[in-house]
Amino acid sequence: MDYSQYRDLKIRRLEPGILEIVMGEEGKLSSATARLHKELADIWLDVDRDPETRVAILRGAGKGFSAGGDLAMVDELTRDFAARARVWREARDLVYNLINCSKLVVSAMHGPAVGAGLVAGLLADVSIAAKNARIIDGHTRLGVAAGDHSAIVWPLLCGMAKAKYYLLTCDELRGEEAERIGLVSLCCEEAELQTKALDVARKLAAGAQTALRWTKYSLNNWLRMAGPSFDASLALEFMGFTGPEVKEGLASLREKRPPAFPPPPGDF
């Protein structure tokens, strides 16, 4: 499989059967640029078709796992219908391509874990968070509905009560608490994170691949059944990019101040 078309994702084969996918660069924090957003949607199609890959490890380089959406791209979504349509499709494809990828995926999250990277991190078959991981779904802080992966997987992982609390408040979840409530599979020290992810990947790569892939397919039917909830949440998120709340959310993030959202324009 030729991965040379990927630029914002760094891809290498760690050992036979195990592929590593890295977001960002050493010393920096990866942000979901327009290119990275598209690559995160497309990569799972290539991993699925790759005959040399049994397990893929997704991690972030540098200061964290993922920093979330580039503010310039968010601003474009508030102004440009074509951009909204394009990014909506990529956001949809990221979720469904990962769910339908037959190969097993392990995520290794440290530091900030938000945005499109977090989508893939929590939809991974085995998600591992360092104790210093800071998991945040910041949609409502921005002024849009909690779309992308939120409605499809958070209630299944940690239950509706916890899902509602963290998605409505945008409170930060540290790695240990994320493991305690079931949002991630495992938690460890940051120094052990890459080794732990590779150990899990090796165990999965050495297993009966047909049995593992068919088990994944069966379990992911729970996510497929939640597809209508996901589709609705994503549509409402992107509808929000046309409204007044996201403009205030974006301005407040740029100005590093609390938002002062306007009252809703009608009866919702």
Summarize the structure in short:
The chain is of the alpha/beta class and 268 residues long.
Descriptive report:
There is one protein chain. With 268 residues, the protein is an alpha/beta fold. It has a single domain, classed as 2-enoyl-CoA Hydratase, Chain A, domain 1, CATH 3.90.226.10. It has 13 helices and ten strands. It has helices at 34-49, 71-79, 81-100, 115-123, 139-142, 150-158, 160-169, 175-180, 193-205, 209-219, 221-225, 227-240, 244-255, and strands at residues 9-15, 17-23, 53-60, 66-67, 104-109, 112-114, 126-130, 134-135, 173-174, 186-188. The strands form two sheets. The protein has a six-stranded mixed sheet with strand order 1-2-3-5-7-10, sandwiched between helices. The chain is globular and about 55 Å long.
Largest sheet: 6 strands, mixed
- Low-pLDDT windows of residues: none
The third-level CATH topology is: 2-enoyl-CoA Hydratase, Chain A, domain 1
What is the mean predicted local confidence, pLDDT?
95
What attributes does this structure have?
268 residues; 10 strands; alpha/beta; globular; 4-stranded mixed beta sheet; single chain; 2-enoyl-CoA Hydratase, Chain A, domain 1
